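[stage:ingest] chain + small molecule (2'-deoxycytidine-5'-monophosphate)
[stage:ingest] validated
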Amino acid sequence: MGVFSRNIIIAIDGPAGSGKSSAARLLAKTLGYLYLDTGALYRAVGWKALKEGVSVQDEEVLAKLCSRLKLTVRPAGDGMKIYVDGRDITGAIRTPDVSRAAAAVAVVAAVRHRLLGIQRRMGKKTGAHGGIVVEGRDIGTVVFPEATVKFFLNASPEVRVKRRYQELRQQGMPVDLTVTRQEIDTRDLKDSSREIAPLKVAEDAIRIDSTGLTLDGVVSTMLETIQQKAGLKR
Ligand code: DC
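[stage:predict] done
[stage:export] tokens:
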């Protein structure tokens, strides 16, 4: 597909296992846009806290950790790579321990504040790509309320647990379905009940239930919507 004639921000929010990462990556690839997985930024902070052995709840300690954190994101293949202090942590942040740490640091105001600035700067640097697909929990509501098109992706709890389980297995992690279910339940509760920027559907977001859809089905629906809603010339 060609490039749209103006700078586009596509926001994709949704809970864990909703299929938003795969959809966001494929959509970005199809449109030739940049791709930003904001969950990886929270994971990077959680990873660093675990590595330094500091509390993932201590606001003061996390604020200091964030202020000296050197985070770099680079497009790579169909996705992106993330570096902390020059070290590639793209694979290391996908463990269940880091998932828990990420959800914990995500409730801390100083962490959200620091990552908000980083995300907004990245959103402005789309350059020749002409657009960016940004996925997370608060993209359409807080990070880019002015996004060109917003999607909220969801799926039945059973399907979300299965997807997460398969993803972990593919990464070679020792996994258990019951533990995965508990992990998803705990993260859902944490992500949607926190005070700052909780996971919620933006008023102007288009909801997509991916339960019975293939990845291509989700992305085709998105592409149609982008063309209709944004009325963009290509
Ligand atoms: O999408 P993910 O599972 O990689 O996200 C990891 C955690 O980061 C998730 O539990 C909540 C947090 N997060 C957030 O609070 N806001 C975002 N925009 C993205 C992720």
